[in-house]
Write a structure and sequence with these properties.
Layout lengths: L5 H14 L5 E5 L6 E5 L1 H7 L1 H6 L7 E2 L2 E6 L4 H13 L9 H13 L3 H14 L3 H4 L1 H9 L5 H13 L2 H4 L9 H9 L7 H16 L10 H11 L13 H8 L8 H12 L31 H9 L13 E8 H4 L3 H8 L5 E7 L5 E6 L7 E3 L5 E5 L8 E5 L7 E3 L3 E5 L2 E4 L4 E3 L23 E11 L1
Parallel strand pairs: 1-4
Antiparallel strand pairs: 1-2, 3-4, 5-15, 6-7, 6-15, 7-9, 8-11, 9-10, 12-13, 13-14
Helix pairs in contact: 1-4, 5-6, 12-13
Organism: Rhizophagus irregularis (strain DAOM 197198w)
Protein name: Btb/poz domain-containing protein 19-like
InterPro entries: BTB-POZ/Galectin-3-binding, BTB/POZ_dom, SKP1/BTB/POZ_sf, TLDc_dom
Amino acid sequence: MSSKFLEELSNDYEKLFETEIGYDVIIYAGDELNVKEIHAHSNILCIRSKYFRTAFSNEWAEKKDGKFILKKPNISPHLFDIILRFIYSGNIELKNLQGPDVLKLLIAVDELNIQQLISHIQEYLIKHQTEFLHQNPAGILETVYQHETFTDLWNFCLEKICEDPKILFNSDKFVNLKAPLLELLLKREDLNMDEIKIWESLLKWCFAQQNMENNPAKWNKDDMTRIERSLHKFIPLIRFYDIEPTDFFYKVYNYKDILPQDLIHDLLEYHVVPNMKPKTNLAPSRKSNLKIKLDSTIIQSNHIPLLASWIDRNDSSYYNNKNITYDFKLLYRSGRDGFNAKSFHRNCDNKGATIWVAKFQGSTQLIGGYNPLDWNGYGFKYTADSFLFNFTDGNNISTAKLGYVKKPNNAIFCSNDQGPHMGIFLCYGNNEWKNHDNNATYYPDIGIPNTLNTPNFAVENYEVFQVVIK
């Protein structure tokens, strides 16, 4: 009969690390401005990592007074401490680290060849730190690209950027993107961006690389040669035939002197000659893969499959941007149309089914609801299909909570002096929101503040979308 006391064993090994009894390794972690001496045990490090087995071999080892000496100026003391605690105890806690530090930790464990952590940290970044990609998308993409073991994170970053290109293309760091990475992105058929915007972004990148002004009238022959060389390998990746005629004339033809002349001829022929078909041997059109166009300052296209699944009461995994049977048409935006009940009803009454979404002030939290009926009239309306939802972090759809109506007779309330009103949760005529449903009688408790903990609250902005069956 055997018994397992893994937690006790883990704690004892962590104590060994902390007390440093019998240590034979001295590690200098951090650079000159922040260096720390850390003590460890070579036998434990060698068992847990191939890197240390090599580092402490006779060919590589540096020893002084019988102790191995290891200098790692590229890994901060704090991160090295986290790594060593994992090596000793098998435990690691990441929730107190910000996204950039988690990425640095991933780079460090890759260098130290700790395979279990490479997979674990990638999974953590993907699930819990998606916003880190927004901070320096060009730099993060380049960093991940340089590490072949970061496959999961690389695929995630590419998919996230293709799904929402403004993360990268609207960043002030976009022009610093290395050419091979830009080429990889422009090859993607699922890059969710109008082709004219892709072309304009490519030009912006090119002129920044060449430190030139975007003004063809001022270019000399040498300038045009430099631009042609810079653009050469990217030209076949632009789907010029998907650019509308007006945009082609003003935003593409204007650069005819730096584009291949046969391309310009073919494009002119396509736009001028009736029924002329595009030339063959071109990159596949991105149009069929473009994701939902959504006029919103609050939600993104990746929210739409989830909202559609809730409307249909289906598993969200069934939905993608190609099989959604609804369009979401913006009817009302408080910051644009006025934060009052009159504006809300003027824009939203007699429009049928709607979804409203509100963003909390000073937070990424989003709340909202689905009204399958309408907002006109006065009094309670019956439906069993309405719901409320709450994204504790609107940038991360995995934080969503959903609650379908519990009292269908009181699902929706309409009044000309109020905004959205569902059950006894409502927006008063101005930016005052109250959830009186303290006992979750009308809708389930999904974390929307109620009057027991928050008498009332304000939102930064809210929008209402008409749900239209395609």
